[in-house]
Design a protein that fits this description.
about 230 residues, seven-stranded mixed sheet, about 25% strand, alpha/beta
């Protein structure tokens, strides 16, 4: 079931908008194109890092076709491509979720989202609590503190692992056997989690990237957070 916060924003701001979903390919379970299509957008576009010839794009096309959604513009690109606006243009409404903690330089990525956005940007991201405490110990994420996962210490990893164990979530380099490499062909990989941050820290990253947060909502028992922003 889609979050009420997401649905209310799409219903209000998508009509007549050029709509872009950045990162819709993961199993097609989190794509919002089929939701936005219900609210009469002017256009629908999708961007993801996989090649257009990949099975993931084929799965998205089949998924949308099953819902009688046609004419979606497709772009194969990294959100961090410095020429992304030249390749794709800009959009009235940009949506992206499940990406920010997978990028090596989140403030740069947020600036990339801002460049793509003409009016509104909706971000969904995993977050951690300000205070994380369990049988393995305690961690403080308040006051702008965050963890760079490639450098996480053994004791800190135990606390974070216990936190996600209680949700039956397995996270690469935290509580999961076998993990993504940090580099792929000499460049940062976009598979692993690079960062652990609270919603308050993420909000400041968004604001310092040049976007204005106009509303927000915590979901998934506080593990996920939406930020609705304007340029």
């Amino acid at each position: 079931m889609r979050d009420k916060f997401l649905l209310e924003i799409l219903e209000k701001y998508v009509p007549g908008a050029d709509y872009l979903d950045v990162g819709p390919l993961y199993g097609t379970v989190n794509e919002t194109l089929s939701v936005a299509a219900k609210y009469s957008p002017r256009s629908l576009s999708a961007a993801d890092i996989d090649p257009l010839s990949s099975d993931s794009w084929a799965a998205l096309r089949s998924h949308l076709a099953s819902k009688n959604i046609e004419g979606v513009k497709e772009f194969s690109t990294s959100i961090d491509d410095p020429t992304i606006v030249d390749k794709m243009g800009t959009y009235d409404f940009v949506y992206s979720a499940g990406i920010l903690y997978h990028v090596p330089s989140p403030v740069y990525t947020l600036q990339q989202y801002r460049k793509l956005t003409r009016k509104y940007f909706l971000l969904g991201t995993m977050v951690v609590p300000e205070k994380m405490e369990n049988e393995a110990g305690a961690l403080d994420f308040s006051g702008g503190k965050l963890i760079y996962v490639p450098a996480i210490g053994k004791d800190e990893r135990k606390v974070v692992a216990a936190h996600y164990d209680k949700f039956n979530m397995q996270i690469h380099h935290i509580n999961m056997e076998g993990s993504w490499n940090w580099l792929s062909n000499g460049e940062p990989s976009y598979g692993p989690w690079w960062w652990l941050y609270s919603s308050s820290t993420c909000r400041r990253m968004i604001e310092t990237s040049g976007l204005k947060v106009i509303s927000e909502e915590s979901t998934w028992d506080g593990r996920h957070h939406y930020f609705f922003c304007e340029r």
